[in-house]
Amino acid sequence: MKRIITATVLNKSGVLNRVTGVMSRRRFNIESISVGQTENVNISRITFVVVVDMIDDIEQLTKQLNKQIDVLKVNDITDESVIARELALVKLSTNKTTRSEIYSLIEPFRASVIDVSKDSLVVQVTGTNTKVEALIDLLRPFGIKEIARTGVTAFTRSVKIEEKPTAFIS
């Protein structure tokens, strides 16, 4: 089962290495990792997607990470109401006939072409992991030369989204 873990850490040299070291010692495989500075230049946010066998493993991991000196806070946000996005750049083989087909294919995904050359183009797509995967699958027949992905970046929503009732009783 996949879990999304966020950690706010001090923005110092070696912190990422220590945090991933804890995960490595616990035999967690990091499926994706995204790191960046927050609104405070002294603090960074790390977003991990990890695969675990049992929920107890995540509890143990968050406890171990919280013990690290430069770690300020660790959360498993998988079951929360979250905003999660990923960025992918996809370089495709193209020619005159396939180029227009690719343009029309990426439009519903709100993806964009960010570089064009004689025999290739680069598509940029952002969105959920599912959306990115779906577009990549549709682009495969055109000949993918290269893919670069950021991994998931996520945080919890400010307002929890409640399910709306489907029927009203009068």
Characterization of this structure:
The strands form 2 sheets. Strands 5, 6, 7, 8 and 9 form a 5-stranded antiparallel sheet that branches. Strands 2-3-1-4 form a 4-stranded antiparallel sheet, with helices on one face. The protein starts with a strand and ends in a 14-residue tail after the last strand. The protein is α+β, with helices and mostly antiparallel strands and 170 residues long. The protein is built from 4 helices and 9 strands. The protein folds into 2 domains: 78 residues, ACT domain (Alpha-Beta Plaits), CATH 3.30.70.260; 73 residues, Alpha-Beta Plaits (2-Layer Sandwich). The longest helix has 12 residues.
Helix content: 25-40%
User: Helix and strand string, N-terminal first?
Assistant: EHEEHEEHEEHEE
Low-confidence stretches: 164-170
CATH architecture title of the largest domain: 2-Layer Sandwich
Supply the number of helical segments.
4
What top-tier CATH class of the largest domain fits best?
Answer: Alpha Beta
Number of domains: 2
Structural class: alpha+beta
Radius of gyration over all CA atoms, rounded: 20 Å
| The CATH fourth-level homologous superfamily of the largest domain | ACT domain
In terms of DSSP E residues, the strand content is 35-45%
Major sheet = 5 strands, antiparallel
Mass-distribution shape: elongated
The counted number of beta strands is 9
Round the mean pLDDT to the nearest integer and report it.
Answer: 89
What name does the CATH topology of the largest domain carry? Alpha-Beta Plaits
Q: Roughly how many Å apart are the termini?
A: 42 Å
